[in-house]
Amino acid sequence: MPCPAPCNRMPCNQRCSKILTCGHQCPGVCSEVCAEGYCQQCSDKLKARVDFLEVKSYGEIDVDETPVVVLGCGHFFTAESLDGMLGMLEVYEVDEYGEFIGLKDVSGALAQLIPCCPDCKYPVRQFATQRYNRVINRAVIDEMSKRFLTTGRDELRELEQQIAELERSLGKTREEIMQPIRQARTHAKTSEVSRILKERGTEFRKLEGAIKAFRNSVVDRHQPAQKLHDATVHAARKAAAATATVDVLIANMTITDAVPVLPRDRRVTMGGRMVQIKTEFFILDDKFIVAQALKSTSTKSSIKIPGGAPGLLAMPFFQSCKNFIDEFQVENLPKLAVEVSLFYASIARSFESFCHSSKMNLDKAATHIAMAKQLLEEAREVCKQPFQNAESLRNAVEESLRLMKKRWYEEVTAEEINVIKAAMVSGSQGIASHSGYWYNCENGHPFAIGECGMPMELARCPECGANVGGRNHTAVGGVTRAMNMEL
Fold it and tell me: How large is the average pLDDT for residues 98-115?
C-alpha cells in the first residue's frame, strides 16, 4: 500500500523481542521502531503517566503484558490506552481477546479529527508511529474529503444563486423583448431584437462556462477517493513487478481498475450535473417562448436565436435528462430524479407545441410526450419515498400529468380563423351585436373579448396559462392586438 493509504497491515500486540543498546529488552510493541531511551529498567521516565485505563505510571506497569508506544512528540503510553483513545476499533476488527483479526470498511462515516497526542495535542505523525497509520491516513483522507465537500458545496451554492438570478432575469426581460419582436416589421426593430437576443446569449454562455469549469474541477479523477485509489494501484503494481514474469506483466497492462466512488464525494459531482441541466432547462424553455414569438412576425427569417434553434437543442437535452435520471436512480438520489423528470416533461410540452405550430417532427414530438408521461408516472411512484420536498414534488408531478392530457395550441390557418370568427359572432351566446376584438397572449395564442372588446377582468390563456385580459380597459403585460384576426 502507498504511504497515504489507510494501512492494511495488522498491528501486533506482543512486546518487541529486540534488545536495546543498554542491553535490556525493548519495552515497545512488536513491529515498531525500538524505544531507545525508554527502557523501563534504566531510564528516568518511570513517573510518567502511561496507562489511562488504570491510571498507572510507567514504573507501575508490566511491559510484558502492556508494552508501550512512543509517539513522534516524545510522549509514550501503553498500546492499550492509545488504541482506545485514537480509535483503533473504528478501523480494525478484533476478537474476544482483543487481538486484531481484520480490517473494517472505512468508506462510510468521516473521521472526526486527526489523532493527537493525549498530553501535548501534537498530531500523531504517519511515519513516526506505524501502528496507527490506518487511523491517521484515514483521518487525513477524510479531511481532504471534508475540504472537497465544503469547497464544492460553497461553489454549488454560488452557481445556484446565479441560476436563480438567471431565472429572474429571463422573466423580467422577456416582456422587454417580446414587444420589440411583435413590432419587428421595420429594420430598426429587427436590429433591436437581434441586439437583445445577442446580449441574452452572452449571459447564457457566461453561466454555462462557469458550470463547465466547476464540473471539470470536481470530476471523478480529482476526488480524494480516486487519487488514493490510483496511488494504491500504482504501488501494488510496482510491488508485483519486482517478482512477476513477463507474461504476468503483459496481462496486467490490460487490467482496468475501477474504484467504487465514495457517495460523499459523488454528492458534489452529481450536484454539478444537476445545476448544468437546470440551467439548460431555463435557457431552452426561454428559447421556445422567443422562437414562438418570432414565428408570428413577418421578419422571422432575418432574426436568428443565438446558440441554435430550440427544436434542435431539445434533442440532446432529452437524452441528457434520460441519462441523468438513470444515474440518479442508481445513486439513490430520488429528489433529483423527480426534478429532472419534471424538466423533461416541461420541455416535451414546449417541443410538442413548437412542432405543431410548424407542422414538422410531429412523430418525434409524440414520442417525447409519451416518454415524458412514462417518466412522470415513475416519478409519482418515487415521490412515495420519504425524501425532502417529496410532497410538493408529487403535487408538481400530478399537475404536469394533468397538463399532458391537454391539447397544445396549433397555429391556425386563414380558413380556420374564418371558421373561429364565424363561430364567435353567431348563436345565442355569440357577439353578433358587438364585433369585439381579438388579442394574442404573451406566447402568441389568440383569444377574443366580446361586448365592447376591451379587457375588464383577468383570466388565463386556455392554451398556455399565461395572464390575459385586464382591468379598466387596460390589458395585462404581454397581451397585444391580433390584427390578423380582424382583417
Answer: 76
In a 13 Å sphere around the CA of 213, the CA atoms on its Cβ side amount to 8
Q: What is the DSSP letter of 448?
A: E
pLDDT, residue 155, reads 86
| DSSP for 374-408, written as a single string | HHHHHHHHHTTS--TTHHHHHHHHHHHHHHHTSPP
Residue where the block lists cell 495488522: 10
Distances (CA, A) of 154 to 110, 143, 215, 280: 19, 17, 14, 21
Tens of pLDDT, residues 320-355: 999 989 888 777 788 889 999 999 999 999 899 888
Average pLDDT value for residue range 197-213: 83
- The DSSP bridge partners found for residue 19 are 25
The reported pTM is 0.59
Cα→Cα distances 232→8, 121, 243, Å: 11, 30, 18
Sequence-distant (6+) residues with CB within 8 A of 292 are 353, 354, 357, 443, 444
Q: pLDDT per residue over 248-300, tens digit each?
A: 444 444 434 444 444 555 677 888 888 889 999 988 988 888 887 777 654 44
Collapse the DSSP code of 174 into the 3-class scheme (helix H, G, I; strand E, B; otherwise coil) and give the result: helix
Farthest-apart Cα atoms in the chain, separation: 122
Residues 6+ apart with CB under 8 A from 346: 281, 285, 400
447, containing H or E segment: strand 446-449
Nearest to 288 by CA among 419, 409, 427: 409
C-beta of residue 393 within 8 angstroms of C-beta of residue 340: no
